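Fill in residues.
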């Protein structure tokens, strides 16, 4: 099973992907995580992607497609994957379809998580993390016990450079301009389900479970 998870930055895709991995046994492939790993390790791809990520713009299709096709080689036979953050453009979607067709596979379900822009900015700009242990916090929704300090006493918390207000606004704008057309692309294929992401995490999870069960049984 191949699941494409669409949604703007800060929509909560990561949280829902964890639940999907546990429930359906799928491999979670996040383009954002893969790109950050390449950037941290200083690979050729990471160096090329650096400037695009810091500005909140999309990495060019040829770079992201090559990377994600390589990531998908880790899918074990008989299992599937959740593609988080990929594809992000029509071009990437077409490349994905072509690559999957060569192995007689296809995108089975597309989950489109919809969240108001104002909520997205609040969610993203408030995110903090510990650079030592990796613990995640939010200044409003999950604040540390001591201001700007990891609860484990590791270090002061940090904010990702692409989580600042200016960059976030640009990321959201970029999403609407370049990624939203994917909704129409998958609507034409009849395999997309729109999910209200403005409600509680539990309600979002329940909606996704219903969508997954209906689409996979159909």
């Amino acid at each position: 099973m191949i699941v494409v998870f669409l949604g703007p930055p800060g929509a909560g895709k990561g949280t829902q992907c964890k639940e999907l991995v546990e429930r359906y046994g799928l491999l979670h492939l996040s383009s954002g995580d893969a790109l950050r790993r390449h950037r941290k390790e200083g690979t050729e791809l990471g160096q090329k992607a650096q400037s695009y990520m810091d500005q909140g713009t999309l990495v060019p299709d040829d770079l992201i497609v090559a990377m994600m096709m390589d990531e998908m080689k880790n899918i074990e036979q008989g299992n599937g994957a959740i593609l988080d953050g990929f594809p992000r453009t029509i071009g990437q979607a077409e490349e994905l379809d072509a690559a999957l067709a060569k192995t007689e596979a296809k995108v089975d379900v597309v989950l489109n998580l919809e969240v108001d822009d104002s909520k997205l900015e609040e969610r993203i700009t408030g995110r903090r993390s510990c650079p030592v242990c990796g613990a995640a916090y939010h200044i409003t929704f999950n604040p540390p016990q001591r201001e700007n300090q990891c609860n484990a006493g590791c270090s002061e918390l940090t904010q990702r450079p692409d989580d600042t207000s200016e960059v976030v606004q640009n990321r959201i704008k970029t999403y609407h301009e370049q990624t939203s057309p994917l909704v129409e692309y998958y609507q034409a294929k009849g395999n997309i389900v729109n999910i209200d992401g403005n409600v509680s995490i539990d309600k979002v999870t329940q909606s996704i479970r219903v969508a997954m069960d209906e689409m996979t049984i159909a």
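The first strand starts at residue 2 and ends at 6.
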